[in-house]
Design brief:
The chain has one domain: Peroxisomal Thiolase, Chain A, domain 1 (3-Layer(aba) Sandwich), CATH 3.40.47.10. It is globular. The chain contains twelve helices and 15 strands. It is an alpha/beta fold. Strands 1, 2, 5, 6, 7, 8, 9, 10, 11, 14 and 15 form an eleven-stranded mixed β-sheet that branches. Strands 3-4 form a two-stranded antiparallel sheet.
């Protein structure tokens, strides 16, 4: 299959940045990885009980000001800070000067955008008469396109733009959309990213489904009982040509929708299998050429089992795998970009991150799970992101040629 599909050129990642529970920016993220310092912390729940969250560290919480003040909320502050760290905005400005603002696309993945701000309005006002207060600003906070619009305005770009919201695969699928726009010549560069902040809708929604753990999530563990919520903002700049040393390329992608169940994955991972095979096909790679798999690895009993079956069907049990959600928590619509950038950092630094918190591997699962950081020469890394409704996405990154 892969030989017939490998006709597309790689798309190069020329800049990237990440804010997550591991830290603000790439260097802080790498430091946490090298020191094996996960970002999950215990959190008290309203109404009793505890869970563990992966929150973005304090960024000063300065309000979003000036002409962008209508976007102000925690999500907009985390997003705005991320856009200017690691010189990301400078690299976009360089691309803007080269191609023109209208030739740079912007595709952002999110589930909630500024949903937390809307929750604050509900908590702080008497809603019996429908009054959410003057500060509600739904169009610029909870409306999903608001985060993409803010990105465009901060970076001064005006090419094709969209918010992609396909549950937990949202900010992985932005790479696929960008790949197609660049390959079709509709853009010369594309900013892709994802943003979601922890909110009560996520926390209590997953608890109501019985999927929220009271402990730090432990993927592939025999006693795993659910996920840990995280938050993140990450961005990447994609272009047709590499720039600088140690460059990384998006070699292939796969998207499927198996529509098996509104929340549960296909038990044998049928949709995940096809997504991984399609990504290998576009990349022109054989399964044995993948050096590391960054798992979706949500730590729920059914999701880990389904992904395990899918990986065994495509790769067997020899490829090293880990779930970085054990470091960051599940960042919802920002999970895809978080794990994509962690995959890129793994490639650039020849390190396979451990799966944290996992004590006793589930004997019913046979994927090769790494529980300690491993220094290993990496050439090709595969990253999986699977969402509710069977929204599956696989990305393959490799060293630029």
């Amino acid at each position: 299959m892969h030989n017939n599909l490998s006709t597309k050129r790689p798309i190069h990642v020329t800049a990237h940045t990440l804010s997550s529970a591991l830290g603000i920016g790439n260097e802080a993220t790498l430091k946490s990885l090298r020191e094996k310092e996960g970002g999950l912390r215990q959190h008290e729940l309203r109404g009793g009980g505890t869970t563990w969250l992966g929150l973005v560290p304090d960024i000063g919480e300065e309000p979003t000001r000036g002409t962008l003040s209508q976007y102000d909320c925690r999500a907009s502050r985390v997003l705005g800070h991320a856009l200017v760290q690691d010189d990301f905005h400078i690299q976009v400005a360089r691309a803007r000067a080269q191609y023109g603002a209208d030739r740079i696309g912007c595709f952002i993945g999110t589930i909630g955008a500024g949903l937390g701000h809307l929750e604050e309005c509900y908590r702080n006002h008497d809603i019996t008469n429908g009054d959410l207060g003057r500060d509600v600003r739904i169009d610029h906070t909870a409306q999903l396109f608001s985060v993409t619009e803010q990105c465009q305005r901060v970076l001064d770009i005006s090419g094709p733009a969209a918010t992609i919201s396909t549950a937990c695969s949202s900010s992985a699928k932005v790479f696929c959309t960008a790949y197609r726009y660049l390959a079709a010549g509709l853009c010369d560069a594309v900013v892709v990213g994802g943003i979601d902040c922890a909110n009560e809708g996520f926390i209590y929604g997953f608890r109501s489904l019985g999927l929220l753990s009271s402990l730090p999530c432990r993927p592939w563990d025999r006693d795993r009982d659910g996920l840990s919520i995280g938050e993140a903002a990450g961005f990447a700049l994609l272009e047709r040509q590499p720039r600088g040393a140690n460059s990384v390329a998006l070699l292939g992608y796969g998207e499927t929708s198996d529509s098996y169940h509104p929340t549960a994955p296909h038990p044998e991972g049928d949709g995940a299998v096809e997504a991984m095979r399609h990504a290998l096909g576009i990349a022109g790679l054989r399964p044995e050429e993948i050096d590391y798999i960054n798992l979706h690895g949500s730590s729920t009993p059914s999701n880990d089992q389904s992904e395990d079956h899918a990986i065994l069907r495509v790769f067997g049990d020899t490829v090293p795998c880990s779930s970085t959600k054990s470091w960051t928590g599940h960042a919802q619509g920002a999970a895809g970009i978080t794990e994509a950038i962690l995959s890129i950092l793994s490639l650039q630094n020849d390190v396979i991150p451990a799966t944290l918190n996992t004590v006793a591997l589930d004997p019913a699962l046979r994927t090769r799970i790494v529980t300690q950081n491993v220094v290993h020469r990496l050439k090709h890394v595969l990253s999986n992101s699977f969402g509710f409704g069977g929204n599956n996405c696989t990305l393959i990154f490799g060293a630029a040629q």
